[in-house]
Amino acid sequence: MLIIRSIEKMQSYSKKALLKGKSIGFVPTMGALHEGHFSLIRAARKDNDLTAVSIFVNPAQFGPSEDLKKYPRNLAADLEKCRQEKVDVVFYPDAKQMYPKDYSTYVSVEGLSDLLCGTARPGHFKGVATVVTKLFNIVAPTTAYFGQKDAQQSVIIKRMVKDLNLPVAIKVMPTVREKDGLALSSRNTYLNKKDRIDATALNQSLNLAKLLVSGGLRDTRRIIERMHQLIARKSSAKVEYISIVNSETLKPVKKISGSCLVALAARIGKTRLIDNLIVRDAL
Ligand code: AMP
User: Which of 26, 27, 29, 160 most suits a substitution to test ligand 1, by most atoms within 8 Å of the C-beta?
Assistant: First the structure.
């Protein structure tokens, strides 16, 4: 497995591979790798000649009061796991290279970035869209793999790729969960014992939404109310938002019709977690 730190070296690796007719499957990550990331890596390996993973904790997507400094980092373990997963190349740049002092160009996907998580995290998706554009220009993947866990991110990246005519296919893979339903996240390591138990309410509330929809309830205000009630039973949980939106436009819907995204963010203790589920009126 190659570990590349320099942007130029990564670009020349990909150029050579593409000239030889090889396809490159790419999984961008912030490290602290878990089974959610591995599911993307395995999909990339299955579909492509070469698999590239980037590990970069992107400062541009963290707000000033967010957890950039304490975000979990474990490079040695991540590299070992990438080796086990038979990744061909890990791109691991440093922030100075990605954002030199005179850095001044940003990608902003308007209309989708200030909804849902964007309300509490202004600038977050601008940071994500910018780094993903840069990584696509550096790694030059044939296909890039993202997780449904970050549903809004996937919608934004798909729109960005379409709007900017970026020559990369986007695949979104299902959310990988713990046995009790908690969506895997690098931030789960912040949870103490009580938080960890209370965190299961997030997935439970999504399952409740699905159950209500399959039972015929279409009024999203009532579904959201029931989800709030379920999460409120957990003392360490504080909901930031629960929304039911059109899965492409991310605009709130009043009645479930077609495919809708039920998305939420909540603080469990001090840890902000997100989760989501697609529901359909004809289940
Ligand atoms: P991150 O390292 O948190 O930036 O995530 C890197 C990629 O892994 C993103 O496309 C995420 O959506 C995806 N991912 C994170 N957690 C999960 C999960 N539990 N299941 C599937 N994909 C995930």
Answer: 29
Give just the sign of the alpha carbon dihedral 248, 251, 257, 263. positive
Distance of CA 4 to the CA centre of its chain: 23
Taking Cα atoms as reference points, which of 30, 31, 24 lies closest to residue 51? 24
Q: Pick from 54, 58, 66: which is nearest to 7 by CA?
A: 54
Q: What is the dihedral of CA 248, 249, 250, 251, to 10 degrees?
A: -140
Half-sphere exposure of residue 187: CA atoms within 13 angstroms, side-chain side = 21
Task: Please tell me the distance from the alpha carbon of residue 152 to that of residue 250, in angstroms, as a whole number.
Answer: 8
In terms of Cα–Cα distance, which of 254, 200, 194 is closest to 224? 254
pLDDT tens-digit series, residues 60-73: 999 999 999 999 99
Does the beta carbon of 276 sit less than 6 angstroms from any atom of ligand 1?
no
Distance from Cα 30 to the centre of ligand 1, integer Å: 9
- What is the arithmetic mean of pLDDT over 80-91? 98
The residues that are catalytic are: 37
- To the question of pTM greater than 0.85 for the whole model, the response is yes
pLDDT tens for residues 217-275? 999 999 999 999 999 999 999 999 999 999 999 999 999 999 999 999 999 999 999 99
